[in-house]
Every structure is written in C-alpha cells, then in structure tokens.
Amino acid sequence: MPAKTPKETIVAIRNAVVAALHTPDVSKRLTEMSSNVIASEPQEFAAFLQSEVDRHRESRRQAPSRARQREVISRRVREVIVAYAGICGRRGDLRPVSA
After folding, report:
1. pTM (2 decimals)?
2. Could you tell me if 35 and 44 are in contact, meaning their C-beta atoms sit under 8 angstroms apart?
C-alpha cells in the first residue's frame, strides 16, 4: 500500500481479502495447494515478520563464515594428503615420483 493510504481503506481491503480467502472455492483450492489461511491482524503479522527476521539473523550469526569453512576444508585436505603419503611410505616428499 502507498504510504499515505487512509487507514479505513487499508482495513476495507484487508476485510475484503479475508472474506475472499474464506470462501469455499478459494479455501478448497488453497487446501489442495497445501496452504493454510491465517487471517491475522496487521500488527500480529508485523510481529511475526519481525520474529522471523530476528530468528534468521541469529542463525546467520551462528553459522560459520566462508573463511572458516575454507580453513576447515583446507585442513581436512592436508590431513588426507598426509594420510595418503603415510600409506604410500612417502612421508617427506609429496611430489609425484617420475617414471
């Protein structure tokens, strides 16, 4: 909605949408699409959206950074190379042996 839309207009549009969502045809079609109708008040929806933003922000903060992921992968690759060299009996020199 445009920023200066009168509150009465917003309420009227919301009520019309909620009424349309609860008609049998629309309700049936939404159920077939595995959707649920939740006709909450605008303030409740705004609070829900804010809680989702906060939740995702927190999970993003806890996720490892790309640099940390690369560091872990590099360390693991080095461990595999060293283990392979140990199996092959080539502990010091990891260069390919020329034929």
Report:
1. 0.46
2. no
